[in-house]
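Reminder: ligand-aware prediction takes two inputs, not one.
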Amino acid sequence: MRRPFIAGNWKMNLVVRDAIRLAEEVCECVGSIPDRDVAICPTFVSISAVAAALNDSPIRVGGQDCSQWNDGAYTGDVSATILRSAGAKYVILGHSERRHVMGESDAVVHAKMGKARAAGLKPILCVGETLDERQAGNTLAVVERQLRKGLEGLTHEDLAETTVAYEPVWAIGTGEVATPEQAQEVHAAIRTWLKELGGPIGEDIRIQYGGSVKPDNVGGLAAMPDIDGALVGGAALTADSFSTIVGFGAG
Ligand code: PGA
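Here is what comes back for the chain with 2-phosphoglycolic acid:
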């Protein structure tokens, strides 16, 4: 049985004071929900403060990205080692906003995966097709390419610490969620590739769905056999909606 894993991606929102406040609220609402892993991913600037606010709780902190390079002369970048030292345990990599707005290639995402693992961070590797790619019938080909390149060269031990997030680009921040069946079709394909790459470990790797997950649609998604949690954007910005998503089906 895979333990559900729900992560909140706060994106470029919340000044430090508001990030601390939301972390404390999430802690209160979510702290006691059993049998699931929960992480919140604030901006780099708020990582330390949020990690301190969550101190004794089981909720973990993650970064939204890390550098493809080691520490050194890379102005503006944050290395995986620095992220870890600030209190992060997870890091989101290959998010579609980084791929499509900042122009990150599969090769860059792959380099970041290596740095994250070397620093002991648990990566959440995002994959997903654009609307054009879906309409052209290329969904599985795109997702397979992103997945294989992202995971290339990882040991079985690294794979065991990795989460995959399937996030169809057309569903992110649009309110247009994939149907549970559409999502499950892709998750099942990802599961097959993960088993090819990792053998039995592939069965244990969690695959989150992301893209307009809300309290009123999470139930149908969570009922699917290969959907093991969610990567939540907009609905992670209030403790109420995030805790409802986290708590779905618990207890
Ligand atoms: P959304 O974002 O829930 O606001 O669609 C999800 C994500 O980008 O991870």
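Residues 9, 167, 172-173, 210-213, 231-235 surround 2-phosphoglycolic acid (CB under 6 Å). The chain is about 40% helix and 15% strand. We will return to this case in the review session.
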